[in-house]
Amino acid sequence: MFGLFGRKRSKDHVKERLKLVLSYDRAKLSPGRMEQLKQELMGVIVKYFPAAESDYDVKLEQHGDRMVFVANLPMSQADA
Amino acid sequence: MNARAIVVTSGKGGVGKTTTTANVGAALARQGEKVCVIDTDVGLRNLDVVMGLEGRVVFDLIDVFEGRCKLRQALVRDKRVETLHLLPASQTKDKSALSEARMKETVRLLVDEEGFDRVLIDSPAGIESGFQTAASAAEGALVVVNPEVSSVRDADRIIGLLEAREIQEVRLVVNRIRPEMVKRGDMLEVEDVLDILGVKLIGIVPEDERILVSTNVGSPAALDESSRNGAGGAFRDIAKRLRGEDVPYASLQASSGFLTGLRRLFGGS
């Protein structure tokens, strides 16, 4: 992943950026709408899991032929 | 590829659609097929000049569509390869003169009545009516992509639209690869592009100055058999694969290593 001098190669940047932008393009969803979805989802989740941490992550991932919506929701220690 | 009618497309402009159409078309004809290349970029005609046939255009695609001439009268026969024909776009009309029904009928006539083995349809850039008309008559597609961010993104969009049209055979041509940039990690590799787009590969074409030289004089590089390496040879390989031959991919990495070795040998950088 990292070339000489620890510099990340520019082709690794472009590949990551492309994968991300294409997942939004294919889902016909803008990154801004995704952020909205994340906020609204968070509102619902804390109603049921008050201990849910706010730094959770939602993203779109390509799994073979299909697009998968992935939400990673860590619970705080007190809740576990 | 089984498809007789193949659209050459890319979404983004300037990635090499017309160059690919001219060179693969010329190579297919040289390999024995009766080939017609159609320019559908109405208003921005260019396939004629790239092939060096601009002086012999009399009628065009829109004349055929609107019944001002017979299909056969509009075909321009190539000077170098007898089985290669061009159906030029109109330079004066606009895209509103295009029609999917007429496009399909024209391609059907070329195959069924005129006996063409292969029809390559050079699509205009974009995803609007020009592209849609070009794609409407196609059973297969060559998607031309450059290893850079905007071209790959547009290719993904085009591939989605081709799939929506249920075009079965979609193949990728990765054009303008620069092996020395790939080597130092500053350009997407072919494998990266395939991984991102998820489409089968049919050709890898290196960046090659001789393409500009060949378009300057209006003679497709693929017809210059003396050049084994480089873009001309890569386009001939695409034609062979299209005809079902199993042609191994030339290792660009190795050739760049060889060149670097030579440069070192002669005291260059």
Compact description:
Helix content of chain A is 45%, strand content 18%.
Topology:
The complex is a heterodimer of chains A (80) and B (269).
Chain A: H1 10-27, H2 31-48, E1 57-63, E2 66-72
Antiparallel strand pairs in A: 1-2
Chain B: E1 5-9, H1 17-30, E2 35-39, H2 47-50, H3 61-65, H4 71-74, E3 76-77, E4 84-87, H5 100-112, E5 118-122, H6 129-136, E6 140-145, H7 149-164, E7 169-177, H8 179-183, H9 190-197, E8 200-206, H10 209-217, H11 230-242, H12 252-265
Parallel strand pairs in B: 1-5, 1-6, 2-4, 2-5, 6-7, 7-8
Antiparallel strand pairs in B: 3-4
Helix pairs in contact in B: 1-11, 5-6
The number of domains of chain A is 1
Distance between the termini of chain B: 43 Å
- Percent strand of chain B equals 15-25%
Mean pLDDT of chain A: 79
Instruction: Output the helix-strand order of chain B.
Output: EHEHHHEEHEHEHEHHEHHH
Outline the low-pLDDT stretches of chain A: none
Textual characterization of the structure:
The complex is a heterodimer of chains A (80) and B (269). By secondary structure, chain A is an alpha+beta fold. Chain A has one domain. Chain A contains two helices and two strands, in the order ααββ. Chain A has helices at 10-27, 31-48, and strands spanning 57-63, 66-72. In chain A, strand 1 and strand 2 (66-72) form a beta hairpin. The longest helix of chain A is centred in the N-terminal third of the chain and has 18 residues, at 10-27. Chain A is globular and about 40 Å long. Chain B has a single domain (5-265), classed as P-loop containing nucleotide triphosphate hydrolases (Rossmann fold, 3-Layer(aba) Sandwich), CATH 3.40.50. Chain B has twelve helices and eight strands. In chain B, strands 3-4-2-5-1-6-7-8 form an eight-stranded mixed β-sheet, sandwiched between helices. In chain B, a hairpin with a 6-residue loop joins strand 3 and strand 4. Chain B is globular. Chain B starts with a strand and ends with a helix. Mean pLDDT of chain B is 92; it is low at 254-269. At the A-B interface, helix 1 of A face helix 7 of B.
